[in-house]
Write a structure and sequence with these properties.
This protein is 28% helix and 28% strand. By secondary structure, the protein is of the alpha+beta class. The protein folds into three domains: 2-80, Uridine Diphospho-n-acetylenolpyruvylglucosamine Reductase, domain 2, CATH 3.30.43.10; 85-194, 2-Layer Sandwich (Uridine Diphospho-n-acetylenolpyruvylglucosamine Reductase, domain 3); 214-305, Alpha-Beta Complex (Uridine Diphospho-n-acetylenolpyruvylglucosamine Reductase, domain 1), CATH 3.90.78.10. It is globular.
């Protein structure tokens, strides 16, 4: 099968490839094979070969929200790396392999409002659609007109409603065999200097909270929707911590004593209870140990089950 993959144009194949270097945590073992497809044709042909081979496979993006098992992945990891960004008035068509920050910067340069609050969110556009990324009260779904994807048999395109976006959720999280290829966004005309000012303010805040050199995935746990919390849990939440109808997971984690926790090289920041980072030499096992311990503490204290934003790759 490897020889069949090597014969596919615009597919770059790497054997025993490090996955740690493709994740923000910089942890995890290698993939048996890593295949980067730079065109839709290369991706669909590669997936057809893989799915008839019986090999295990996983599809990832920029790796900003991934925890790779310490033993790696005994199969093929596929990435769609096409990075094109095409702007036509207020419509922006962007491929899944584009870096999200590049998209934000291009939109600002063209005087288009709607993505500036996503400044400094790491990762690729495909992952942003997959997890409905957002910050400061806005999420990318607000700007999505349509999404093109490969469903395993054909390339399809669906509108915003069919994407079933919710807070940090989309239909693509549930239909993992669907591979996002591109999205069309509708933005609004605005003054570039005004947008750049907003973005720079956000950049400063995020760089203080999540320094660019920090080996982390940003916030580990999803925030919680206030309306979905049981009355017994809501009674513990002061009004001052509620933001846009959400309660930060960091509130419950801090109450449970999360700040400063450590397991080997993996730490919880002493200034942010929902920030886990690799201080050096950390392992995926240690990340899971801390995540499980934090979930246990919050469950026992509040009867609440926290849900990770991060995704897992491996056994």
């Amino acid at each position: 099968m490897l020889f069949r993959l090597l014969a596919i144009p615009n597919l770059h194949v790497f054997v025993n490839a490090s996955l740690a270097r493709h994740t923000r945590f910089e942890i995890g073992g290698p993939a048996r094979t890593l295949a980067d497809a730079s065109t839709e044709a290369a991706l669909t042909e590669a997936l057809a070969v893989i799915r008839t081979s019986g090999w295990r496979h996983a599809i990832i993006g920029g790796g900003s929200n991934l925890i790779v098992h310490d033993t790696g992945f005994d199969g093929i990891v596929v990435r769609y790396t096409a990075p094109a960004i095409d702007i036509d008035g207020c419509l922006v068509r962007v491929e899944a392999g584009a870096v999200l920050q590049d998209l934000v910067d291009r939109a600002i340069d063209h005087g288009l409002r709607g993505l500036e609050t996503m400044t400094r969110i790491p990762g690729w556009v495909g992952g942003a659609i997959y997890g409905n990324a957002g910050a400061y009260g806005h999420s990318i779904h607000e700007r999505v007109e349509s999404v093109r994807f490969f469903d395993g048999a054909e390339i399809r395109e669906i509108g915003n409603a069919a994407c079933e976006f919710r807070y940090r959720e989309s239909v693509f999280k549930r239909r993992k065999e669907w591979v996002i290829l591109s999205t069309t966004l509708r933005l609004e005309s605005a003054d570039s200097s005004e947008l750049r000012g907003v973005a720079e303010g956000i950049r400063k805040i995020r760089d203080e909270k999540y320094p660019p050199t920090m080996r982390c995935a940003g916030s580990i746990f999803k925030n919680l929707l206030l309306d979905e919390l049981q009355d017994s849990v809501r009674a513990h939440v002061p009004d001052r911590v509620i933001r846009e109808g959400k309660v930060p997971s960091a509130f419950f984690l801090e109450e449970a004593g999360a700040k400063g926790m450590a397991c080997g090289g993996i730490r919880v920041a002493d200034y942010h209870a929902n920030l886990i980072y690799n201080a050096g030499g950390g392992t995926a096992f240690q990340v899971r140990e801390i995540i499980d311990e934090l979930k246990r503490r919050v469950r026992e204290r509040f009867g609440l089950e926290l849900e990770e934003e991060v995704q897992y790759v491996g056994p």
